Description:
267 residues
Amino acid sequence: MGKGLTKYVRVALSAAGSAILLFSCGETDSGKPSAAEEAMMTEYSENLSIINSQNGSRSYHFVTPLLEGYTLAREPYREFRKGIKITTYQDDSLSSVDAVLTANYAIYYEKRELWEAKGNVVVEKSDGKTLYTQQLFWNARTGKIYSNVDSKIVQNNGRDVFIGEGFESDEEFKEWRFRRMKGRMEVEMKQGTDSVASDSASEPPTPSGARVQPAQPARSAASGASAQPTSSERPAQPGSAARPEIPMYAIEASGEPAGSARPQSQN
């Protein structure tokens, strides 16, 4: 896509009359541009959109908010500081998408026919594979794409996840490998898994044994018949006879005597 893209960028810009600046700079006595001329921007365009759909070649759609070209530099390049989106198609029509690449930044070196994309680089293929990385190179001469940083590949509709360092692949993204594999995950997709997990998490854990209810103090044998306790049920006043001791076998887990009335506080 290197030479072809460069050619069609120029053609599209000229035909569309976009905001592009082309400078014709003279050469020095040695026949080479001066240092000031090498650093001069020679191409500029905003909101550029190019569609290439020639018979017999793969179609693509190239979109960028900003293009800046430096064609007089020692190594001519075009810079896309606000990101790019490239959509390639499976044939010379625009009906079947093959891959979509997006990145926050890109630069193209014309002589080497080398692309470099950086910042949240994502490549989505029509067969379900998706590549995530922070840096990606594409050599149009060799037809290879590669990365020197950590990358992640997701395929089989998200069921297989591969993570590694140093990614290499053909430009069709069919034969790929990591220079150093860091991990692989197989995700089992189940319908309603999230809802079940959230519901179960809201329930407190149930103890293995039956919950023991604390013993309630008995008011009297006829508590339902009389609202006022009798004189025999009232607690002893200070100075009266000592309260009889309660056997230990009558103490339940609550720490209170079972079947006995709780003494009331004095007024």
